[in-house]
UniProtKB/TrEMBL annotation:
<feature type="transmembrane region" description="Helical">
    <location>
        <begin position="274"/>
        <end position="295"/>
    </location>
</feature>
<keyword id="KW-0812">Transmembrane</keyword>
<feature type="transmembrane region" description="Helical">
    <location>
        <begin position="610"/>
        <end position="635"/>
    </location>
</feature>
<feature type="domain" description="SSD">
    <location>
        <begin position="548"/>
        <end position="676"/>
    </location>
</feature>
<protein>
    <submittedName>
        <fullName>MMPL family transporter</fullName>
    </submittedName>
</protein>
<feature type="transmembrane region" description="Helical">
    <location>
        <begin position="197"/>
        <end position="219"/>
    </location>
</feature>
<dbReference type="InterPro" id="IPR004869">
    <property type="entry name" value="MMPL_dom"/>
</dbReference>
<keyword id="KW-0472">Membrane</keyword>
<dbReference type="InterPro" id="IPR050545">
    <property type="entry name" value="Mycobact_MmpL"/>
</dbReference>
<feature type="transmembrane region" description="Helical">
    <location>
        <begin position="578"/>
        <end position="598"/>
    </location>
</feature>
<feature type="transmembrane region" description="Helical">
    <location>
        <begin position="367"/>
        <end position="387"/>
    </location>
</feature>
<keyword id="KW-1133">Transmembrane helix</keyword>
<feature type="transmembrane region" description="Helical">
    <location>
        <begin position="231"/>
        <end position="253"/>
    </location>
</feature>
<feature type="transmembrane region" description="Helical">
    <location>
        <begin position="307"/>
        <end position="328"/>
    </location>
</feature>
<keyword id="KW-1003">Cell membrane</keyword>
<feature type="transmembrane region" description="Helical">
    <location>
        <begin position="521"/>
        <end position="538"/>
    </location>
</feature>
<feature type="transmembrane region" description="Helical">
    <location>
        <begin position="167"/>
        <end position="190"/>
    </location>
</feature>
Length: 706
């Protein structure tokens, strides 16, 4: 009778929890489609406050009534611009000037020296923010399609921003759909059940809805900043990590159903066994992501809290909503392979992983040495990675209007036309600074800034003059960045000039320098934080150090593998400066999950069986679920490939390749073999390193006998 009351009480609690979460989901669900409304993609706003380009932007504000972002409308006819073409350009320019958001008067059209192209600079009010994209769309409507051999493209900083905004506003639908389909297919393969896949997918969807609500509210109230990149990563991160946590809990629940007759008792035991590892894993990812707050770039600081909120919401859902769903499902949820109450050893359900564990036991030292050497060999490929600032033509995986226009400009004009470097100097040294700047290789011309429609004399503001230096190379190229660095060195040497160099290329230079600084600061902090969490979880010092070492080796091997993939398969020109840091944070934070899943179970089994037997048992019972979790996470991050942005495709490929390498090689072979070879000392200086040696020898003999 008491058992019946207990069962009904447990069922009632589960029903209340599920209904409560369904109400939350109904309220939070609509916000997943509203994130684009509170996202901002103005990269200039993400510069460090103390960067030279930021100071230049502040000085530039005094020289104009309104700050502008230029759109470059370029017309090309390879046989030569005709009088009719020039009339069309004049007519279009007149219509451009009348558009809301365009700051007039427009400069006169610029005809190229070869007379095959005409360029119109259209200043757009920077206060328009993301509405700059709408103004660019109107420019493109006015120019219309190519006509009788005359091509028209809208490029420049405003054209590029418009194309980026178009990509990011399309994130919600396609990326979410692809992610859902990928997770569904993998869950069907993993569980081979027409029922069980519903539970983790429903819980992951609930996690995403809750995360979207929190992120929307925080971004709308300016507590955090959300950009398109963070929005896309949030989607795949929540579904990937959420499905991982669900797989771990469900695998443990299946085990406990063999040991407990009542599902409630099985779930309670499963929750107690799996929750510490899941919480430690989630906490590691959250803390690692929050380390991005140490970044000097606002774009990085935006990604950290957004992703951390996603993981926190996922933890909450997976430890409450999912257990309640599974409890209501009981054994029938696993149909047609329902686990029976038979007190079976959990290793009996993991035949292939039991054989792998046996192989590790017989060849432990050989296994870890060979795998370490292979990973080290892959890591040598890091030298081919080619971290740089991606040029505008390299940002997209497909051709865009802004890229096509920039190519036209590069063919017919000094490539820096329309995006000049700006030099601010004292009035008394302006002529000397101009001469010095003109002598820098890569600078095509230098002229003083004068207000459009003014007298034509140089503008003086607070004793300063602005010079505009047109570069020979495209403003987003490596050549232009080298020129900016050399230009800064040259003008800084002029006594009394107090020169400041800014502009589009200078922003890229300062962003690259900030990325390097962030990488050098954040990576050691993340490693230290992870080591502390592992030490607390495993109650040891040696094990965390070795696990951190395997994670770093796996990360370097992944970068080496990615260098080969990007260069020889995908034909990418390189990776963005931010790529190594993002790849590190996600690969290490997520990769350490599998260390936690494995070693927390190994420690649990070591207490009962001894370390070496515990290693083999832990590998046998977690190998399948960790591999499945790795495949899910790799597949979800691969969904980033549907977005036509090289930087997100590269991040998706890196996380997918790294997670597969981590689960198949590092977590299945290297770590277990290393732990087995070291034996009880792996838990040094904890008591387990001294107290289980006799049991360890006995357990090892049994495992070898198997």
């Amino acid at each position: 009778m008491a058992g019946g009351r207990s069962r009904w009480t447990a069922t009632l609690i589960a029903v209340v929890v599920v209904l409560g979460w369904l109400v939350v989901g109904g309220l939070a669900g609509p916000y997943s489609g509203k994130l684009g409304d509170v996202a901002t993609n103005d990269n200039a706003a993400f510069l460090p406050a103390d960067a030279e380009a930021t100071r230049a932007q502040d000085l530039a504000a005094g020289f104009v009534d309104r700050e502008t972002t230029p759109a470059l409308v370029v017309y090309e006819r390879t046989s030569g611009i005709t009088p009719a073409d020039q009339q069309r350009v004049q007519a279009d320019a007149a219509r451009f000037a009348e558009l809301p958001g365009v700051v007039g008067p427009l400069p006169p059209p610029i005809v190229s020296q070869d007379r095959q192209a005409v360029q119109v600079v259209v200043p757009i009010d920077a206060a328009e923010g993301e509405q700059i994209g709408a103004v660019v769309d109107r420019l493109r409507e006015i120019t219309g399609s190519d006509r009788d051999g005359l091509t028209v493209d809208v490029a420049g900083p405003a054209g590029l921003l418009a194309d980026l905004i178009e990509v990011f506003t399309a994130i919600d639908g396609p990326l979410l759909l692809v992610t859902l389909v990928v997770v569904l297919v993998i869950l069907l393969i993993v569980y081979r059940s027409p029922v069980l896949w519903v539970f983790p997918l429903l819980a992951a969807g609930m996690s995403y809805s809750l995360a979207s609500l929190f992120v929307y509210v925080l971004a709308k109230n300016d507590v955090i900043k959300l950009n398109g990149q963070a929005q896309g990563i949030l989607t795949v991160l929540v579904f990937g990590a959420g499905t991982d946590y669900a797989l771990l809990l469900i695998a443990r629940y299946r085990e406990e159903l063999h040991r407990h007759e009542r599902p409630w008792d099985a779930m309670r035991a499963a929750w107690r066994g799996a929750a510490p590892a899941i919480i430690a894993s989630g906490a590691t990812v959250i803390v690692s992501l929050l380390c991005l707050l140490l970044s000097s770039l606002n774009s990085n600081r935006a990604l950290g809290p957004v992703s951390a909120v996603g993981i926190a919401a996922t933890l909450l859902v997976m430890l409450t909503f999912l257990p309640a769903l599974l409890l209501l499902g009981g054994r029938w949820a696993f149909w047609p392979r329902r686990p029976r109450f038979d007190q079976a050893d959990p290793r009996t359900e993991h035949g292939i992983w039991g054989r792998i564990a046996g192989f590790v036991a017989r060849r432990a030292r050989t296994v870890w040495i060979v795998t370490a050497v292979v990973l080290a060999a892959l890591a040598l490929g890091v030298t081919q990675l080619g971290a740089t600032t991606l040029g505008q033509s390299d940002l997209f995986t497909k051709s865009t209007d802004s890229v096509a226009g920039q190519d036209v400009i590069a063919r017919h004009y000094p490539a820096g036309t329309g995006s000049p470097a700006t030099i601010f100097t004292s009035q008394g040294t302006a002529e000397q600074v101009a001469r010095v700047a003109q002598g820098v290789p890569g600078v095509s011309s230098v002229r003083p800034f004068s207000r459009p429609g003014g007298t034509g004399s140089p503008e003086v503001v607070d004793g300063r003059v602005q010079l505009q230096a047109t570069l020979a190379d495209p403003p987003d190229s490596n050549g232009a960045e080298r020129t900016i660095r050399e230009l800064r060195v040259a003008v800084h040497r002029v006594p009394g000039a107090d020169a400041v160099v800014g502009g589009f290329t200078a922003i890229n230079v300062d962003t690259a320098d900030a990325s390097t600084r962030d990488r050098n600061v954040i990576i050691p902090v993340v490693l230290l934080v992870i080591a502390v969490i592992l030490a607390v979880l495993l109650r040891a010092l040696l094990a965390p150090v070795l696990l951190i070492a395997t994670v770093v080796l796996s990360f370097l091997a992944t970068l080496g593998l990615c260098a080969l993939i990007f260069r020889h398969i995908l034909d990418f020109p390189g990776v963005d400066q931010s790529f190594p840091l993002f790849a590190f944070v996600f690969l290490v934070a997520l990769g350490i999950d599998y260390n936690i899943f494995l070693m927390s179970r190994v420690r649990e089994e070591s207490v009962r069986r001894g370390t070496r037997a515990g290693v083999l048992t832990g590998l046998a019972v977690t190998g399948g679920v960790i591999t499945s979790a790795g495949i899910v996470l790799a597949a979800t991050f691969s969904a980033l490939a549907v977005l036509p942005l090289v930087v997100l495709v590269e991040l998706g490929v890196a996380v997918a390749a790294g997670v597969l390498l981590d689960t198949i090689v590092v977590r299945s072979l290297l770590v277990p073999a290393l732990a087995y070879d070291i034996g009880p000392k792996i838990w040094w200086p904890g008591g387990l390193s001294r107290n289980n040696r006799n049991g360890d020898r006995a357990g090892a003999e049994v495992e070898h006998a198997r």
